[in-house]
Amino acid sequence: MINIKNKRLFIYLAAALMAATHEPVGAQDDSPIVTAGINHLGLAVKDLDRSVAFFTDTLGWRTAGGDPDYPAVFVTDGNAFVTLWQVTDPKNAVEFNRKNNVGLHHLAFTVKSLKALHELHQKFLAVDGVHIEFAPEFMGQGPTTHMMIREPSGNRLEFVVSGRQVRAELKAKQENEK
Q: Cα–chain-centroid distance for residue 120?
């Protein structure tokens, strides 16, 4: 039987392995898969302005449109698109509980380097309304490194530097020290 800690480690390692070894869509012409990745992800937010500011000011994303009648704002980092939808009654909005609610558990973003991950952590410490669940740490036994936060509207966001990238950075550092 797998205990909870080992089960969590197993899940992290399995996810990391899948992410590191997946074959791009279209690589197999006979594939029955008809989808080609996520087009965008929509997040319901309590405070549209603060959530937009978090993505644009803190993460450096840009706005890519919106719908003032909904209201919603579309943001992008040039790869991923997130739609931020304002809930109609923020004061009575029900907070998401990842252990008890069906729905989005968290949204994970790839970060390009360990330095960038640590810089984000420092930025998050200074942003009002951001709750850091855990600072940068190894995912399981590493070297994949991640951290988890809640943005100002309470959505859980994970930021991940792949093990492949961490190993490349360590190798470059060792070569520079020679």
A: 12
- Split into its structural domains, the chain has a count of 1
- What sign results for the dihedral spanned by CA atoms 110, 112, 113, 115? negative
The 3-state DSSP class for residue 171 equals helix
- Name residues whose C-beta falls within 8 Å of residue 167's C-beta, 6 or more positions apart in sequence: 143
pLDDT at 135 > cutoff 80: yes
Q: Is 153 exposed, middle or buried (0-12, 13-18, 19+ CB in 10 A)?
A: buried
Tokens coding 1: 């039987």
Here the tokens at position 171 are: 């190798």
Exposed e or buried b for every residue in 98-123, given b needs 16+ CB within 10 A?
A: eeeeeeeeeeebebeebeebbebbee
| Residue 140 located in a structural domain | yes
Tokens 């919106």 locate to 66
Instruction: Note the helical H segments in the chain.
Output: 4-21, 48-53, 114-126, 163-177
- CATH at 87: 3.10.180.10
So what's the pLDDT on residue 51?
97
Alpha carbons 72 and 66: distance in angstroms, whole number: 5
Lowest mean pLDDT among 33-47, 125-139, 151-165: 33-47
